[in-house]
Amino acid sequence: MYKILFVYLVFSIHVFSQKYQPDQILINGKQYDYRFHHLEQYFNYYPEKRIVPNKDSTIFHRNYIAYYEIYENELFLRDIQIKDDYNKLKSVRDKFSFSKEERILLRWVNGVVHIGIGVDDFSKDSLRPSNDNNLFFEIQRGKVKRKLNFGKEEMRIFKKFQWNKFRNTEEYSLLYQKLYDHGLERSEIDVHIFNNVFYYSKRIFLQK
Fold first, then answer.
1. Which of 18, 87, 162, 166 has the fewest CB atoms found within 10 Å of its own CB?
2. What are the Cα distances from residue 48, in Å, to 32, 53, 193?
3. What angle do CA 205, 111, 194 make, to 5 degrees?
4. DSSP codes joined into one string, 28-69
5. Other residues' Cβ atoms within 10 Å of the Cβ of residue 101
6. What letter would DSSP give residue 199?
7. Buried b / exposed e along 11-50 (16+ C-beta atoms within 10 A)
8. What is the pTM of this model?
9. Spatial contact of 163 and 194, defined as CB atoms under 8 Å apart
C-alpha cells in the first residue's frame, strides 16, 4: 500500500509539467481514455514482473499503455503495448500472461472507477478533465457491483457527496495519517483527497 500511495502522490501532485498518456478502456465497443492504472498496483506488488522499467516510479513514465475492457459486468485486460525502436506500438501482453484468452479477468481490482464518455474539458484541470457524460463503476474482485451515469453538474454534486461520506470513515483517518507521515502538509491533504476521492473511497456511498 505504501508504494502504491507514493506512486499516486507523485502522479497527482508533481506532474503538470510532463506529458501524460492515459491507458484505454473498451465499453460497449467504444474506446475511451482511462486514468486508473491497475497494472501499476500489480507491478508494485511484484516488481520482478514489471514488463518495462520506469525511471522514476511515476505513472507518467510507466512506458506502456494498458488496454482494458468492461465486458459482461467484469473488468478485463485486453492488451499491453510499448513503443518499439521505430516509435510504433507493439503488443507485449505475452510477457504479462501466457493466457491465449482474448480477455484476462483482473480479480485483484477493487474500487470506484470513473470514465468520461463525452467531451473532455481540460480548461480547469490539466490532469482531471471534466466531462458532460460520466460513467462510474464500483468494482469488487474484478466484478462490477454498481454502475452510475452522471452529467457534468450531477458529477460535481456526486463528488461532493462522496467526499462528505468518505471523510467520516476510518479509511479516511488512516489515509490522512499516511499522507501526513509521507510528508504532505496538513493544508494540502484534504485538497488532495477530495481531488482523488473516487480513487481512494473504494465504494459508492450513494444509496441504491
1. 87
2. 30, 10, 30
3. 65
4. TTEEEEE---HHHHHHHH-GGG-SS--SSSSGGG---EEEEE
5. 8
6. H
7. bbeeeeeeeeeebbbbbeeeebebbbbbbbbbbbeeeeeb
8. 0.85
9. yes
- Extract the C-alpha cell encoding 57: 516510479
Q: Quote the distance between the C-alpha of residue 204 and its chain's center.
A: 15
Walk along the chain (208 residues) and give the pLDDT tens digit of each residue.
444 444 444 444 444 445 778 999 999 999 999 999 999 888 888 888 888 887 666 677 788 999 999 999 999 999 999 988 888 999 999 999 988 899 999 999 999 999 999 988 888 776 778 899 999 999 999 999 999 999 999 999 999 999 999 999 999 999 999 999 989 899 999 999 999 999 899 999 998 7
The string of DSSP letters for 92-135 reads -HHHH----SS-EE-TT--EEEEEE-S-EE-SS-SSS-EESSEE
Residue 72 grid coordinates: 459482461
